[in-house]
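Justification of computing resources. Each target in the renewal requires a structure prediction run like the one illustrated here; the chain below, 122 residues long, is used simply to show the kind of job we budget for.
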Amino acid sequence: MSSSTAANQVRASHILIKHQGSRRKASWKDPEGRVISNTTRDTAVSQLKAFRDDIVLGKAKFDEVASRYSDCSSAKRGGDLGPFGRGQMQKPFEDATFNLKVGEISDIVDTDSGVHIIMRTG
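Resulting structure tokens:
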């Protein structure tokens, strides 16, 4: 990547937990949406906060938690979304990612997809 491209792009991994308010109530691990339809936003946030705490404390690895628990299909890549630029992700997700330093993990980020924690990787 050239330096001008690098300045306009980030790379990130994330863990998505969908809930009743998510725009699409199905995922690779819940194709019928039965669990998602019964998950409140508060429950999803609590789950993510526990995952974040375990990761920050070194009790769990981000990619392993993503692979097992994320509702996003990126779970099969440990949550890795690859590089992306402005305008390619939902605005709250984009803003949070661009505001992180490489290696940093976000607090809870709300989007139409659900709630996320994001780790900037590049």
